[in-house]
Amino acid sequence: MDRFSSFILEHENDDPSKLILSKDRWPDIDVPLAASTIEGRARMKGKVEPWWEIPSLVYPTSLCTQQCSSLSTAMVKASIVKELGIRSIADLTGGLGVDLWAFSKVAKAVLYNDADPSLCDAARRNFPILGMDVTIKNEMVVPGAISSIMDGMHPDAIFLDPARRGFSGKKVFLLEQCSPDITSLQDELLLQSPFFIAKLSPMADISMVASRLRGLFQVHVIGSGRECKELVCVSRRGYEGDFSIFVHEDEAMMEIPLHQNNEEVAFPGMKEGDVLFEPGKALSKAAATPGIPGSEGVSRVAPSTNLYIVTDPSKAAALSPFGRMMKIERILPYSGKNAKMLGMEYPDAAVSARNVPFTSERLREISSCSGNGPERIYAFTGASRQKMLLAAKPLSDQVS
């Protein structure tokens, strides 16, 4: 083990800022780099465990470990690359390189580029340790520069992860506001490679993306822990058909029909004991239109309410990775009295107001629920336009 790696392990529980103040004690160590690496390793321990296990890797900035992909989302993107049959890939906005490392498990990673010299220096050190033989470049990704950056390489795919903050530091969501602006680069990208893949904000609107990207072939909504983490878009040279939408939740994947029936059809009735499904944020984003894939046996509780009754057990098994599967305990007309009563019956329940003229916070105040338990209380406008209350418990908590 080299001196730097030994220093990292010796001081991994120390305050990085105090190490920097005492840097003269270790003239043979780049203490600022060591401090940022110690801070980064603490973050990578729960985020990208295989990297944390290698103390000789360096992390030159705090931001690079904050913004890098987690292991789970990086491996989902690698599975997309594998499924598309991509055999070689270049990353033009490489960052820390976690995505390119994941791609290298299923394809040949041929090129890394980043505009930040410190990240390029880190890649030159880290990649050989990780077993990666990759060309490393330090160039700005701007219109007219793609051919120069690629320098004669024509991989099967080019990957980009545009920065989603403007010059003021404020988050941006339109593609043309991100850096680089992939809308101005897409023709050049598709000249160099048959695919380009863009990792976008989970807040990006799929319709907006579809209107701006030519050759859009696939849209992947990546979730984890019922949170929407990333939107990954694949464009294909010469493609002119409809794009496919997929939602990923950890190990599970589902294709979402692009053209769903927009007619709102309310469930004709529900009762205590029925199975209730609350989609997670990734599925809700992917299935923005009213239907749930394979909607036979799955029906909305009411128009414009993103809650479903599941009557087909096979559909319940298929949907369960993508949200909460609950058993309905109580159904009541909405009133303050009934909300208080349910709050007494389920004092630790989380609450959610759906399609009603008050907030979840207001429902929490009325019911006095702590929100720390597994039960959930929903307020929503029913099919007859009557406001309703519904209490449910996780299906796994029920005694069969």
Structure, explained:
This protein has 400 residues and is α/β, with parallel strands linked by helices. It has three domains: 3-65, no CATH class; 68-256, Vaccinia Virus protein VP39 (Rossmann fold, 3-Layer(aba) Sandwich), CATH 3.40.50; 275-397, 2-Layer Sandwich (VC0802-like), CATH 3.30.2130. 31% of the residues lie in helices and 24% in strands. It has 15 helices and 16 strands. The protein has helices at 3-10, 16-21, 31-47, 49-52, 62-67, 71-83, 98-103, 117-129, 146-150, 186-192, 206-212, 281-286, 313-319, 336-345, 360-367, and strands at 88-91, 108-113, 135-137, 157-160, 195-200, 216-224, 227-236, 244-249, 252-256, 275-279, 298-300, 308-310, 323-333, 350-354, 376-381, 387-394. α8 links the parallel β2 (108-113) and β3. α1 crosses α3 (31-47). The longest helix has 17 residues, at 31-47. It is globular, with a radius of gyration of 25 Å. The model is unreliable at 261-266 (pLDDT under 50).
CATH fold-type name of the largest domain: Rossmann fold
Q: What's the CATH architecture of the largest domain? A: 3-Layer(aba) Sandwich
Structural domain count = 3
**CATH homologous superfamily descriptor of the largest domain:** Vaccinia Virus protein VP39
Distance between the termini: 56 Å
Overall number of strands? 16
Strand-residue fraction? 15-25%
SS-based class: alpha/beta
The total count of helices amounts to 15
Text of the CATH class of the largest domain: Alpha Beta
Mean pLDDT: 90
Biggest β-sheet, characterized? 9 strands, mixed
Strand order of the largest sheet: 3-2-1-4-5-7-6-8-9
Percent range of helical residues: 25-40%
Evaluate the radius of gyration.
25 Å
What is the molecular shape?
A: globular
Oligomer: single chain
